Amino acid sequence: MNSLRLPTPTAISRTENSCTFTLQVSDQLCFFPGHFPVHSILPGVVIIDWVMELTQQHMGLIAAIPLTMEVIKFKQLVEVNTCVELKITHHREKNKLSFILSSSVGEHSSGRIVLSEPTDV
Fold first, then answer.
1. Which tens digit of pLDDT belongs to each residue from 87-100?
2. Domains in the chain: how many in total?
3. CATH number, position 96
């Protein structure tokens, strides 16, 4: 059984309030078996999980807890063996994260996550 939850970023670029990650969506991710057997796709909820995990690991927002989500859009399926770019921006004044997941075929998903408490550690 596959046990990998989050691909290791192959590239990371940072600005003062954002990080952009390059991720290879491999068939080794634990979410693909059974979702769907004939044509595997990445579940949308996994993208949200990645945003929170990468925010906590790489943006110094260890105490970040999602309260609610706004304007979440899933525009295109993410298939196995796709290289994606995930840009996460922290809007400190609003205590929100925004994200865009894209690849060479265009934008796959975007949205905002409202955090429930101050995120400074």
1. 999 999 999 999 99
2. 1
3. 3.10.129.10
Assigned domain for 75 exists: yes
Query: Could you tell me if residue 94 is inside a domain?
Result: yes
Gyration radius of the chain's alpha carbons: 14
pLDDT for 101 beyond 90: yes
Model pTM score: 0.86
Write the CB contacts of 38 (distance below 8 Å, at least 6 apart in sequence).
none
Task: Respond yes or no on whether the N-terminal peptide bond of residue 21 is cis (omega within 30° of 0).
Answer: no
